[in-house]
Amino acid sequence: DIIPQPLLDQYLSMTDPARAQTVDTEIAKHCAYSLPGVALTLGRQNWHCLKDTYETLASDVQWKVRRTLAFSIHELAVILGDQLTAADLVPIFNGFLKDLDEVRIGVLKHLYDFLKLLHTDKRREYLYQLQEFVVTDNSRNWRFRYELAEQLILILELYNPNDVYDYLRHIALTLCSDKVSEVRWISFRLVVAILQKFYANNANALGLNFINELVVRFRHCSKWVGRQAFAFICQVG
């Protein structure tokens, strides 16, 4: 009753890979772009009408199609709610995490928006995977690492101090030693945000350990760029 059945059938048929190859190679990309709008119109109670189509598009051979879905998966998660997201979107999300950098950047740019919609236990499963974002197909793709640091500043609020210390601290220290100055600058802000997280949650021992690590790693660094990093961290703080 929401959308005329012939119209919905026509939309679903356009995602057929065989048709896309013979009619228009861009058609699958357009379908992927409009899918959140179709899902919103249908409502989560009718998600079953789109589920197979979404999975077909998510496994499309064209990376541009997968990239389009990766950029909007957080919006779809809001539409579907936590239960459907955990059941149907998390597996797709996990696939995008292992995809090409052109696709991974889509989930990375909205990583906080997606993770905050998950239950705490499901969210914790991604702690270890976050460090995989440091490695890219092309090491010169510094904007990827910059985006990671920006997202981590937001993501800090989703995890407790112990998780931040055990997992996110290592990533922050790695990014602080990046070859690109833009990445280092945003990473200094991340380090200060981590320290603020510790002390705001009365995790003073973790904060002191982290400060001592920063002193050893940067203040007493044999290279001037390390000592400069320590000065900038102090300035940001």
Automatic annotation (TrEMBL):
GO MF term set: protein phosphatase regulator activity
InterPro entries: ARM-like, ARM-type_fold, PP2A_Regulatory_Subunit_A
Sorted UniProt keywords: Repeat
Recorded superkingdom: Eukaryota
Gene: Ppp4r1_1
Protein name: PP4R1 phosphatase
GO cellular component assignments: cytoplasm
UniProt entry tagged with the keyword Transcription: no
